[in-house]
Design goal:
The protein is of the alpha+beta class. The strands form 2 sheets. A 4-stranded antiparallel β-sheet has the order 2-1-4-3. Helix 4 (185-234) runs antiparallel to helix 5 (241-269). It contains 8 helices and 6 strands. Helix content is 68%, strand content 7%. It folds into 2 domains: 2-138, Beta-Lactamase (2-Layer Sandwich), CATH 3.30.450; 195-326, no CATH class. The protein is rod-shaped and about 165 Å long.
Length: 327
């Protein structure tokens, strides 16, 4: 969960930063190009004035003069009237044919031509310098989004991790788990369900303990008294042999019933037994009725146990107790 939240937040931040960076990059590139065209236009105006003054003073236009005018930013080329391209005078940084995108020319009244060119490499460097802070800012925003996403995901996932620990403890049968309240509605809803489940389990344990206390008096004492009376009946000298055999069988049934009752009581008292699980009593009662040896007795038993009644006792022991009591 935490990883998905971080990935979603970082992915969204990256998408937003990339879109903004691309838009800003195009805007910066356009600003640099417009500035380059403006520089070429201004340089051409200044060079035209300077060349006019130099020619009016009777001095020739030399490469050194043009280099001093360009200040290392633009390339200035002067072609005298009637001269070929090879005879043109050039000053400033070298340019290539591809630099013509940032070039402007003017023709003087005497037929001479003055051309100013801004090198494209210099434009590229200016664009790169303008984009570098944007790239650094974008990386910083992505890193900040990752950190914020990790912290936010940790805060959001921590309640659910605590709830998972409580649920595992509940599955192991431990009811001494403290489920805190949370400010997140979803986590609070799950926590409320767990607290309700723990409260119900505590009530079930209390009823099981009360059952063990009551059953100790209500079952074991009558069974012991009945066993003593049956044993005394079996010792009567005038009892026929066939009746004595029936009494012995009854005595063994009482012993089995006493053993099953003891097992149920011990299981009910052992509320911390990790292997104990609540079972539905209805099918166990139906199985106990099916185990009755006499069909006549089974017809006299009416089973009216509703489903969903859970008991925290061994299934086999409960079945044996009910069957012995009915028989």
């Amino acid at each position: 969960m935490r990883e998905r939240l971080v990935a979603a937040l970082v992915g969204t931040a990256v998408a937003v930063v990339v879109v903004m960076a691309v838009v800003r990059a195009y805007a910066l590139a356009g600003e640099v190009e417009r500035s380059a065209h403006a520089t070429v236009e201004r340089s051409l105006t200044m060079a035209t004035v300077a060349v006019d003054e130099r020619l009016a003073g009777g001095r020739p236009v030399t490469p050194e003069f043009l280099t001093a005018l360009c200040s290392g930013v633009v390339n200035i080329r002067f072609r005298p009237a009637g001269a070929t391209e090879a005879a043109a005078v050039t000053g400033g940084p070298p340019v290539s044919v591809t630099d013509r995108e940032f070039a402007q020319s003017t023709t003087r009244p005497d037929g001479s031509e003055l051309t100013v060119v801004r090198p494209a490499d210099d434009i590229g460097r200016r664009i790169s310098d303008a984009l570098l802070p944007l790239v650094v800012l974008a990386l910083g925003l992505v890193l900040a989004a990752a950190v914020v996403g990790w912290l936010l995901a940790r805060r959001l996932s921590q309640p659910f991790q605590q709830l998972a620990v409580a649920a595992r403890a509940l599955a192991r049968g431990s009811t001494g788990v403290e489920v805190p309240h949370y400010g997140i509605p979803e986590a609070e809803s799950v926590g409320a369900a767990l607290r309700e489940g723990l409260a119900r389990i505590d009530r079930m344990h209390e009823r099981a303990q009360q059952f063990a206390v009551n059953a100790s008096h209500e079952l074991r004492s009558p069974i012991t008294a009945l066993a003593l009376r049956v044993e005394g009946l079996g010792l009567h000298p005038s009892l026929p042999d066939d009746a004595r055999a029936e009494v012995a069988e009854l005595r063994r049934g009482l012993d089995r019933l006493s053993t099953a009752v003891v097992e149920v009581l011990e299981s009910a008292r052992d509320e911390r037994d990790a292997g104990a699980q609540a079972v539905d009593a209805a099918p166990l009662l139906a199985e106990a009725v099916d185990r009755l040896g006499s069909r006549r007795v089974r017809r006299r038993v009416e089973l009216a146990a509703p489903g969903g009644v859970l008991v925290d006792v061994p299934a086999e022991a409960l079945t044996e107790v009910v069957a012995a009591l009915l028989d």
